[in-house]
Amino acid sequence: MTELIARTENANAPEVITERGERAVFCGLTSIIWLHRRIQDAFFLVVGSRTCAHLLQSAAGVMIFAEPRFATAILGERDLAGMADCNEELDRVVSELLARRPDIRRLFLVGSCPSEVIKLDLANAAARLQGDHDNRLRISAFSGSGIETTFTQGEDQCLASMVPDLPTAQDATPRLMVVGTLADIVEEQFRRHFTQLGINEVDFFPAARADDLPAVGPGTRILLAQPYLGDTVGALRKRGAKLISALYPLGIQGTLAWFQAAAAEWGCSAETVQESLAIPIARAQKALSRVRTSLEGKSLQFLPDSQLEIPLARFLSEECGMSLVEVATPYVDQSLMAEELARLAEDVRVVEGADLDSALARVRANRPDLTVCGMGIANPLEAEGLRTKWSIELVFTPIQGFDQVADLAGLFSRPLVRERQLEVGSWS
Ligand code: SF4
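Predict the joint structure of the above. Result:
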């Protein structure tokens, strides 16, 4: 049985250089910000320190009017002998929370870095609490610790923790599972396009409601909406699902290829897909042409941050005419990235991992027109006259699909346009 459904050979893909050293990336807790918006009846209880609470508060803003759907249980210093009390305390906090909030249908216990939290077995705690609240909701645990996860890996850990709760499919009838958090509006558009292509058996995981758990089995075909979900894919494959190898739905070409890869599983040709989606493609081409002029010919360097770097580099070079100085990404999973790597020019420098000092030295030497990087790195580079784009914006903004193409390109053109306006302003 071949688990990976590959469509292209990777013969001309650029070589991937590996670097090891210091990194500066947000931890997996950050993913709670977009996950809690997506799974609208889930609650994320971080077991952590004051630092974790501050990170969440400042990343999410303070929600004054809404009932919050995440919180931090702050764990004080304990020795191992005190851990039994910790478990009791956690049980008490969870019981109080659930008594107060009958709307919660899924509770995530989220681990963090402090040594006191590492001593606590949250997977066991989740299983114990599940026993206590079995008919009421599902409870699972995952790690958002900065020692183990970068910010997008938080989503991977979260989804992987839900896979054991997915029901088993009763038969092997092919059924598509789109995996990865998408904005509701993007899900709606994608559902419409799948219907146009005659693919009606489609699940989105995670769904907007925690109880909407798609069945999984040998008929399940996984189509990834996000490229950083290696552990989730591994867990789904163990349940019999097969991965459709495809580009990611970023840009017109990426989105078209994504639908074509899925449709091929349902016996639909690439030409038929192109014809069926001609209207949204034409609309996207028109919208993109207005933004492309600001990007064409500009040089671009990615620092390793979101794991979206390689698909974005493909879109920005192929469809926006930007030249790639370097594409660095925290991890390269060849089984998830083969199609994307094959679309980059052979001489593009692709770096896996991080060594912050040497990466910054290369940015300063190259002085690209635009550097895509983490928030903490952007300000010092801006102070040196370099233009930057925060990569975290890419996970907070709907960027997938045809109708979002111009918005996606706009995220990169805005810093360049602003710079031009400042230059004009300083002369007038
Ligand atoms: S999980 Fe670790 S890196 Fe993240 S906020 Fe808490 S202490 Fe900091």
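Residues 27, 29, 48-49, 51-52, 55, 112-113, 144-146 surround iron/sulfur cluster (CB under 6 Å).
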